[in-house]
Automatic annotation (TrEMBL):
Record's keyword terms, sorted: Repressor, Transcription, Transcription regulation
SUPFAM superfamilies: NagB/RpiA/CoA transferase-like, Winged helix' DNA-binding domain
Listed name of the protein: Lactose phosphotransferase system repressor
Record-linked SMART domains: DeoRC, HTH_DEOR
PANTHER family reported for this sequence: GLYCEROL-3-PHOSPHATE REGULON REPRESSOR, HTH-TYPE TRANSCRIPTIONAL REGULATOR SRLR-RELATED
A Pfam family matched in the record: HTH_DeoR
Listed GO MF terms: DNA-binding transcription factor activity
Domain HTH deoR-type: 3-58
Biological function: Repressor of the lactose catabolism operon. Galactose-6-phosphate is the inducer.
């Protein structure tokens, strides 16, 4: 196959699936990963996609925010490992905050019954899992519910968060990088996330490796504000070094 033909197929794949993974594409086309990276660089110069960690995203999909059900299926096994690793950061008793997100919702379902916890969340899926369980005192933040993420946003949530101090906050993100911090497409959701960061004594980011380098529109935290990043072992050593240079601790689940 000629390089131009392969690049055309890669561009079509990016538009169809929203993302190209270098490793998967190299295996499919039976070429070296470096060849795919060169193809993606050529397509980026043509304005057809943007390269991110581990692959690329189609330009016409950059403002696309998948719904909860679709996001929950993406890297599901890695998200489960990350949520399990996050259990080590849950206190035996005290207050925790669960941000909206599919990985934080998985953590909600894994919280041990022997903990004495007050849980604050803006996530409807997380609140739904915890509300009927004994031993948990659950507070759902009010506000407008975003149908895309099933999380509450805007002034009702922000007004309450300004008055709170919680022991540990667990955060999801659409993208994160050493240069741009933690980002999300929606400014209203970003504002609530920022208020949650400010309300937490300890901040733990839960994000699978595919989100590294995928910087979104609105930043809600610098990585210097994050104490611990729990991601998966798909993140390479160079990326780990970049993250640790921000003084955040990194755990690979």
């Amino acid at each position: 196959m000629y390089g131009a033909e392969r690049q055309q197929l890669l561009a079509q794949r990016a538009r169809r699936d929203g993302r190209i993974d270098v490793t998967d594409a190299a295996a499919e086309f039976e070429v070296a990963p470096e060849t795919i990276r060169r193809d993606l660089a050529a397509l980026e110069r043509q304005g057809l996609l943007r390269r991110v960690y581990g692959g690329a995203i189609a330009i016409d999909r950059l403002d696309f925010e998948p719904e909860v059900s679709l996001r929950d299926q993406t890297n599901a096994e890695k998200k489960e490992r990350i949520a399990k690793a996050a259990l080590d950061q849950v206190p035996a008793r005290g207050t925790v905050l669960l941000d909206g997100g599919t990985t934080t919702a998985r953590l909600a379902g894994l919280l041990p019954a022997d903990r004495e916890l007050t849980v604050v969340t803006n996530s409807l899926p997380a609140a739904n899992q915890l509300a009927t369980r004994n031993g948990f005192n659950v507070h759902l933040l009010g506000g407008r519910v975003r149908g895309t993420t099933l999380a509450t946003v805007e002034s009702w949530a922000l007004d309450v968060l300004r008055l709170l101090t919680v022991d540990v906050g667990f955060f999801g993100t659409n993208g994160f990088s050493a240069a741009r911090g933690c980002t999300t497409p929606d400014p209203a959701e970003s504002a609530v996330k920022s208020a949650m960061v400010a309300a937490s004594r300890k901040r733990v980011l839960l994000a699978d490796h595919s989100k590294y380098g995928d910087d979104q529109f609105s930043r809600f935290a610098e990585l210097s504000e994050i104490d611990l990043i729990i991601t998966d072992d798909g993140l390479d050593a160079a990326a780990v070094d970049e993250l640790e240079a921000t003084e955040a601790e990194v755990v690979l689940a």
